[in-house]
Design brief:
The chain has about 525 residues and is of the alpha/beta class. Helix content is about 25%, strand content about 15%. Strands 11-10-9-5-2-1-13-12 form an eight-stranded parallel β-sheet. A hairpin with a 4-residue loop joins strand 7 and strand 8. Helix 7 packs parallel to helix 8 and helix 13 runs parallel beside helix 16. The protein is globular and about 80 Å long. It starts with 5 loop residues before the first helix and ends with a strand. The N terminus is likely disordered.
């Protein structure tokens, strides 16, 4: 377990990697205070190595007031005391690397915390001062300046609150998210210089890559005009100036053999692909696949379009079923509407967890068989459902900014269950979000002993994926199949079949069944909502 495999050591490892997302606050609590921390992660590194992942992506672990789960950063060069210290982070990076596991950190370049030294200085400085030029400060409109400078919409779904906040001196500042997250002015050279230095700081501490939050939002139209739906160019999304920023970042990363993955939500596939040109970002998240319903035709279209949009720039696709912002897979796939959209989230949505779990198991094999890299959100390997929390326990600003109509994202952030018989299911101290009564049933120690568990399925799939050169980046060829069935071939005689129909189906010609997401029926056919890997 301590020796990295060839797949983990080659310089293009990221093209086929399985990257495990760690939301530190909810992963494991090492000091018993109810908040996950770096000590907890370090203690669980053997678990992650046995799972078989190639890298860990950490959500922001920096000093933060936690107004938005750490995405309001006050100091990129310090670890938040709730999580540990910079020295602990350095040890974690090194210890993971000894197990062949790389580390990616999260950078949030669109904004900082309102407690960041830059913004504290800007707020204390007079109107028109140089300190305020690092942000977007403007006078208000109207006779008394009491109308926000423009009408841009909030980037929190369901929120009708303005993206401008007025200071006592009359100036307004821009925040596409919460008032505690003021947007930076990326036209200012000091902003660009600081972020390039932040990248170097973490690359020099051994991180292998960086995930870029809200990567298409940094640049703003300097005139800050009102928003007009459909007008091109958008005043704050996907502006052409962004590409020069990322070309500069790529030069920094290349000096360290580092990689980038961008959070880029764009409907235009051609413009999306521009971020993946050889001198910009290495990869970007695939939100089309994440939000796609459990429907064979829709899934095939998403796969085909994803591969087609990446092909012209030679970038590998990425595949993800869930992350820290979206509804857990087993819950979503058990609902009548199996797609994901922020706008449709609501309290009390019924779900069939047995159905959702069966589909999530099949989706795991589907995603791991596709060309490119895969992101696995913590707890997905345990089949955790979304938790509908008591409203008094919800901390996510998305809930509050929606006026209480949006459940927010805390339901997928409930602390993990590790040990069935231990207090708080082995997480540590009393968790910062309450765990449901059935959480011990999902505990990792219990699933490790059950060959039919979700954890055992993921371990087996990752072991096979790592040992088969035909998986990961490379070509995909669709095979003839009935409507409602996805069947494709990878190289080296590897086949994947997923049955989304209501009846069992026969396999294509093959010599061996490598792995199934569930048992075959009595006739050796593949049942509904089941996937299999075959050797041709």
């Amino acid at each position: 377990m301590g020796q990295p495999s060839p797949a983990r050591t080659r310089s293009d490892w990221w093209r086929s990697a399985v990257i495990y997302q760690v939301y530190v606050r909810s992963f494991a609590d090492g000091d018993g205070d109810g908040t996950g921390d770096l000590a907890g992660v370090r203690a669980r590194l053997p678990y992650l190595a046995e799972l078989g992942v190639d890298a860990l992506w950490f959500n922001p672990w920096y000093l933060s007031p936690m107004a938005d789960g750490g995405y309001d950063v006050a100091d990129y060069r310090a670890i938040d005391p709730a999580f540990g210290t910079l020295a602990e982070a350095e040890k974690l990076i090194a210890e993971a690397r000894e197990l062949g596991i790389r580390t990616l950190v999260d950078i949030v370049p669109n904004h900082v915390s309102d407690q960041h030294p830059w913004f504290r200085a800007a707020r204390a400085a007079p109107v028109g001062s140089p300190e305020r030029e690092l942000f977007h400060f403007r006078p208000g409109r109207g006779e008394h300046g009491d109308v926000p400078p423009n009408d841009w919409p909030s980037q929190f779904a369901g929120s009708a609150e303005p993206v401008w906040t007025r200071l006592p001196d009359g100036d307004w500042y821009l925040h596409l998210f919460t008032p505690e997250q003021p947007d930076l002015n990326w036209a200012h050279p000091a902003v660009r210089q600081e972020h390039e230095e932040i990248l170097r700081f973490w690359f020099e501490r051994g991180v292998a890559g960086v995930r870029i939050d809200s990567a298409a939002l940094l640049a703003k139209d300097p005139e800050l005009p009102d928003f007009v739906e459909g007008r091109d160019p958008n005043p704050f999304v996907d502006r052409d100036e962004l590409h020069d920023i990322y070309r500069s970042w790529r030069a920094v990363a290349d000096a360290y053999d580092g990689v980038f993955v961008g959070e880029v939500w764009l409907p235009d596939t051609e413009r999306f692909a521009r971020y993946l040109r050889p001198d910009e970002l290495h990869t970007a998240f695939n939100f089309s696949f994440l939000s796609c319903p459990w429907d064979a035709a829709r899934l095939r279209t998403s796969i085909d379009e994803t591969l087609a949009e990446h092909a012209p720039v030679g970038a590998p696709a990425t595949w993800v079923l869930c992350n820290h912002d979206v509804t857990r897979t087993v819950t979503r796939y058990g609902r009548t509407d199996t797609a994901f959209a922020f706008a449709t989230k609501a309290f009390g949505t019924p779900t069939d967890l047995a159905l959702g779990t069966r589909r999530a198991r099949a989706a795991a094999l589907l995603s791991l068989a596709l060309p490119g890299s895969v992101y696995l959100y913590q707890g997905e390997e345990l089949g955790l459902p979304e938790v509908e929390l008591p409203t008094a326990s919800i901390q996510d600003p998305m809930y509050f900014r929606s006026g209480g109509t949006d459940p927010g994202r805390d339901g997928c952030r409930v602390p993990l269950p590790w040990t069935a018989g231990a207090p708080h299911a082995g997480f540590g101290g009393e968790p910062w979000l309450p765990q449901p009564a059935d959480w011990p049933a999902y505990a990792a120690d219990r699933q490790a002993e059950d060959p039919g568990s979700m954890l055992s399925l993921y371990r087996a799939a990752l072991r096979i994926r790592r040992g088969e050169p035909g998986f990961g980046d490379g070509p995909l060829n669709w095979l003839p199949a009935p409507d409602g069935v996805l069947a494709f071939a990878r190289t080296d005689g590897l086949l994947c079949v997923v049955n989304l129909t209501a009846r069992p189906v026969a396999f294509p010609p093959h010599t061996r069944l490598l792995l199934g997401s569930g048992p075959l029926d009595a006739d050796g056919l593949l049942p509904q909502d089941t996937a299999a890997w075959l050797r041709a």
